[in-house]
Amino acid sequence: MNDRLTPAHRAFREGLRGVVPDARVFTDALSTLAYGTDGSFYRLIPQVVIRADNENEIGHILAGARRHGVAVTFRAAGTSLSGQAVSDSVLVVLGDGFNHAEVLDNGARIRLGPGMIGAHANARLAPFGRKIGPDPASINTARIGGIAANNSSGMCCGTRDNSYHTMTGLRVMLADGTVLDTEDSASVAAFRQRQAPLLASLDAMSRELRADTALAERVRRKYRLKNTTGYGINALLDFDDPVDMLTHLMIGSEGTLGFISRITFATLPDHPHKASALVLFDDLERCCLAVTALSEGAPVDAVELIDSRSLRAVRGTPGLPDFLNDANGEGATCLLIETRAADAAALARQCETIEQRLAAFVPTRSSGFSTDGATCERYWAVRKGLFPAVGAVRPQGTTVVIEDVAFPIEHLADGVRRLTGLFDTHGYHEALLFGHALDGNLHFVFTPGFDTPADIARYDAFMQDVSALVAGEYDGSLKAEHGTGRNVAPFVRQEWGDTAWNLMRRIKALFDPATRLNPDVIITADDRLHLANLKAMPAADPIVDRCIECGFCEPACPSHGLTLSPRQRIVAWRRIRHLERSGDAPDELRALRRDFRYRAVDTCAATGMCATRCPVGINTGELMKQLKGPSPRPRYALAAARHMDWMTRAARAALRLAHLAGVPALARTSRALHGRFAGIPIIPANLPRPAAALPRLSGGGEPVVLFISCVNRTLAEGSSGTASVAEYTIRLLERAGFAPRYPEGHDALCCGQPFASANADAAATESALSLNDALLRASEQGRHPVYLDNSPCAARIRQAQQAGLIDARLALFDAATFLAERVLPRLTIQRRIGELALHIPCSATAMGAGSALKQLAARCCERLVVPDIACCGFAGDKGFTVPELNAHSLQRLAPALPDSCRHGVSMSRTCQIGLSQHSGVEYQSIEALLDACTAP
Question: What is the pTM of this model?
Answer without folding.
Answer: 0.95
